[in-house]
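Practice record 12: protein with zinc ion.
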Amino acid sequence: MRRRPSPARPADASRTMMLLIEGLVVLATVLVMEGVAYAVHRWVMHGPLGWGWHRSHHEEREGVFERNDLYAVVFSILAGALIAFGMAGVWPLRQVGVGLMVYGVLYFVVHDGLVHQRWPFRLMPRGGYVKRLVQAHKMHHAVDGRDGCVSFGFLYAPPVRLLKARLQANASARKPRGPDGSFRAVDGRPAERAVGPPPGN
Ligand SMILES: [Zn+2]
Ligand SMILES: [Zn+2]
């Protein structure tokens, strides 16, 4: 006769429960971090405050590092501090710190590895969601400079056709200006003056 597995003792059960909760905190942190990274990328790094460091990532890199890598340093210090506070007894900061580290590793693999190929081997996703992630971030780099960019997330990517449509909408929203500050019409018709009185007045 097969022996039925003995039910877990209460102490074991609560340990298992604790591990499960800790795992969930780590997972939740990774998910929340995608939102935080999106917001920081869109409104801080592409804003007046953070562009100073981030600009280097939108320009040709000279050497191995770029000033933008300082953001990774800041987040690593933050993760380390959270883990240290957690080890000192502040629950659940250790798990939050570990979640931040896990996010950092995933970010590095997708962003620095798969998209920008900053590792010594060549690895290209052939299809599926990972390919879409790579395409989405390449579209982030499709615009020169700070404004009009799309796709600010790193682990979640909207469908590529949506991003294409958004890129086109952004491009037509900021028609290139002529040297006199006038807006140049897209179809080549005479430019409309943006500043100054209309001609003839
Ligand atoms: Zn950017
Ligand atoms: Zn990038």
